[in-house]
Amino acid sequence: MKVIELAAPRVDALHSCTYPDPVPGPAEVLVRLRAASLNFLDIAVATGKYPLNNFPIIPVTDGAGEIAAIGAAVTDWTVGERVIPHFIPNWQDGRMPTAGGGPRRGIDLPGSLAEYVVVPAHSLVHTPAHLSHAEAATLPIAATTAWRAVRTAGLGPHKTALVLGTGGVSLFAMQFARAHGARVLVTSSSDEKLERARKLGADEIINYKFTPKWADAVLRLTDGRGADLVLETGGAATFPQSIEAAGLDSTVFIIGFLSGTEVSINVVPVMERRIRLQGNNTGPVADFADAAAAMTAHGIKPVLDATFPMDQAQAAYRHLAEGGHFGKIAISIP
Question: Among 28, 87, 144, 181, which is 20 to 30 Å from 153 by CA?
Fold first, then answer.
């Protein structure tokens, strides 16, 4: 089979090569991948910011396709079904079984830049019928993370979500929050992106380039109550204001560190407003399945910024790393 291999922690170390076709074991499924989708974790792996010692690897955590073959013990899946493998295949439900959740696709296990991959049957989720393969490939990390953020914060009518940025998780969170009946505020430094977010359903938009004290704007737009959910993606540069913008009994859901990992905050408002600081790196297969079901029920579609052919994987990585995207970046697999 054709694969894109990452031979070293450098984007220019992505190259095409051929591997033997994998064969599923008794409880496994062979998936013919049709698309992959990039996350910042993939960039971190390819630039040495997420150190690995097991190069070369088949990279990219998220992908989608259809079942090409099933193991002898598999009874609940059939050849031809469109499916999405989960990023952490052995985390089925409940608490994460171990730090990191166990082996992860594109890191410890073969990833999605390949024509075929073997995965445990219990790691699969049905592709929503209204999604293409490229759209479905964006779901495992981004949609699951956004779903957990909205559910953890208990969003519903009369609640407010503050979403930082317009990346994949942020746009999923906006759409899920709206589906729960919540009001959504979105920040960005781009007026063009903010207008696109408004067309997707954002109730209020804040350009932090022109409103550097954006936490004050959040408080003004919520009549001083603050947000019930803050989707914190920035890290060092945004975290203090995320705390300022959070309301009583709110959740600051921490999913990124674009501006750095170390931060100093005033713990008094955290205590006085009973703010919950919740770290997250995705969720179990059960949450992924719930997110996909919600997307089917509400007709939610991922926002695709661009789709690159497999032989332009390096260009796809660089496009994500540049940070100008709106939504997700996919890679088609012929």
Answer: 87
Q: 298: how many CB neighbours lie within 10 A of its CB? A: 13
Residue 131 sits in the same domain as residue 153: no
Residue 59, amino acid: P
Integer Cα distance of 78 and 292 in angstroms:
19
- 5-43 confidence digits (pLDDT tens): 999 999 999 999 999 999 999 999 999 999 999 999 999
- CATH number, domain of 98, equals 3.90.180.10
DSSP SS3 for 260:
coil
Backbone φ, ψ for residue 139 (5° rounding): -80, -45
The number of folded domains in the chain is 2
Give dist(CA 199, CA 183) in Å, integer: 14
Please name the residues in contact with 190: beta carbons below 8 A apart, sequence gap of 6 or more. 166, 207
The full length of the chain comes to 334
Closest C-alpha among 80, 73, 87 to residue 39: 87
| Model pLDDT, residue 256 | 86
Predicted TM-score (pTM) of the model is 0.95
